[in-house]
User: What shape does this take?
Amino acid sequence: MTTFEHATEATPDDASQARLVEWVLRARTFGIIAVLALFVAITASIQSRFVDANNIQFILSQTSLYALIAVGEAMVIITRNVDLSVGSIVGLSAYVSANQFGAHPGISIIAVFAVGLGIGLACGFVSGAIVAIGRVPSLVVTLAMLYIIRGIDTIIAGSHEVLASTEPSSFNSIPDHTILGIPVVALVVAGVVAIAGYYMRSYRSGRDLYALGSEPSAATLAGIPAARRIFGAFLISGGLAGIAGVLWAAQYATITSNAASGLELQVIAAVVVGGVAIFGGSGTVVGAALGALLLQTINSALNVLGIPSLWTDAISGFLLLLAITLDRIIQIQQAAALRRRRVRLGA
Amino acid sequence: MALDAAATTEAPRPGTPRDESVRLGDVLRSLVRWETGLVVLLVLVFGIGARSSSEFLTNYNLETLCQNIGDIAILALPMTLIIIVGEIDLSVASILALASEMLGYLTLHHWPLALIFVTVIVIGAAAGALNGFLVTVVGLPSLAVTIGTLTLYRGLATVALGPQTVSDYPTFWTNLGVDSFPGVPWMSWSVAIFIVLALVFGLVLHRTSLGRRLYAIGLNKDAAAHAGTRVGRVKWGLFVLSGVICAIVGIMYTFELDSAGENIGIGFELQVVTIVLLGGVSIFGGRGTILGVALAAFIYAGIHSVLLLSSGFNDQDFPIVSGGLLILSVLIQNAPSYVRRAREWGRRRQARRRSVRAEQPG
Assistant: This one.
């Protein structure tokens, strides 16, 4: 915040509001990177195995799962909605897709990914349709879908679990492939994040999502097809969670009907810590992915420092609250700064 | 967040002859109250239950039904007020868990019981106060705040007791948890407490100026503030109240189960929100009654009981029913607006066709 005030003083008087907002956003991204660097440096100085190749690979493959889901969640939150059902989608997709190997021996891995994607899209379709056409608040719809999808998962799975031995080794080794020490999955997810980031920045329909999130009624009056865009955001969120489910299965190998429960809270925390405003209308998917990286790094650091994993939930909840509170304070200060400037200009 | 999206479409249209049918519809609609529908549904559910199984109306089954619903129904009361003022509290199950774990933790450390009760209730109040502070003073949306505290409080509960379970509570209290209410063999203590609390909440909401103010806040908080209501303070008070009640229910629920574990009460927020919205409370704020919520609680419990008695039903699958009921309640509440939208759409299409015809020469 102090850096922010400094910036308002330094900007020339004719600077537009847009430039100020952009500066804050960029400061946010650098802020996350700075916190990340600080965290890594401190943890590494206490426990050097935190930065060895194995642990970095582990953090990166863990992050790629969360980042993939966070991209979709960020798009939904930017439209001033929320998707609480992603954890259940990941769970259902992980179970059903991993089960394909046992049910249809010799099935190709690409077909399994298609199954996961299909499940995710179907879930996103239902939530999106009820939110966009039924105009039921997304909170209600996705809270209900969280339990409905998990319930379907328990009906399908029962107490049965998919064992690693039924899955081909080429599937379970997906997280192990690396190029120059970086997991291939992480590279692919980085590509997805880049494409989504470019789309949200430069495509008209991407900008529409921001417009809908910052002022729904104005966006509708301006002719933006609100229902179609919001539906699309839920579809993408569901689809990405579906693919993440297959990756989850590849990474954890043994899958029960309980897989990934509570994951949605970690994802929302990542998105919000990454600078996507919970009010909608601002933030980037790249920021959301960085938020996921930060949270996973913190989790891993706690682990390496010997702090019990019991603390994970409490810490991510605390970080979520901290992030939204800081955002709100910055927002209030920003509004005050703009008001002061307008007075100075005699407008 | 998006909660106010549909509320703005309620504006009355100027009365043209075409609107005669709409006005008639409004009159009919005002005759058919949501609560009337709930009474019919309640009779229907219990009728189906009695016909499908001879066990349904036994004291034993009804007491089980009451055991299952009492605690959740109590949680629905403060949630009703919070949703009426246009907010939401998703952290209820986590505050309940935090209270339960602290009860276990302090019992392990041999604190006197009275002191434990006070401490746990103070913790509940503090948890609610933090929610209220972030919503009213910092100005954050309650959805985001309570998603955060849902994670935080459940996380703290996990930390407090770790993976262990505590189950050596005084038998006097644990017996109250499973005994039926004296003289009424089909009713549990929790439902008796719910009925008393529901009367108090109903009186406050429907018979006091504070109650009217809650509706005013939900319908238009700026107007309510201009009319002299301290909106922030009232909302903050409701969150603290919710925290206190969650802590009390946490104690009750722990005694009923005679154990406290980290997964206690998981998923309760879905059931609570489902009952409140099924009871006719508008998710957009400003509408709903305690009577409706009480009826909805027993309908919900009745459906659960009917399913439990039918063969081939697995209790683990009940969340699917809850989720479906939740979405259905809001869809049905929204139904009039769908009719209006469809009619407007038809009228626009007709107007477009007419203007196209007018443009064509000849």
Notes: The CA atoms of residues 55 and 242 of chain B lie 36 Å apart. Chain B has 14 helices and two strands. The beta strands of chain B are 180-181, 184-188.
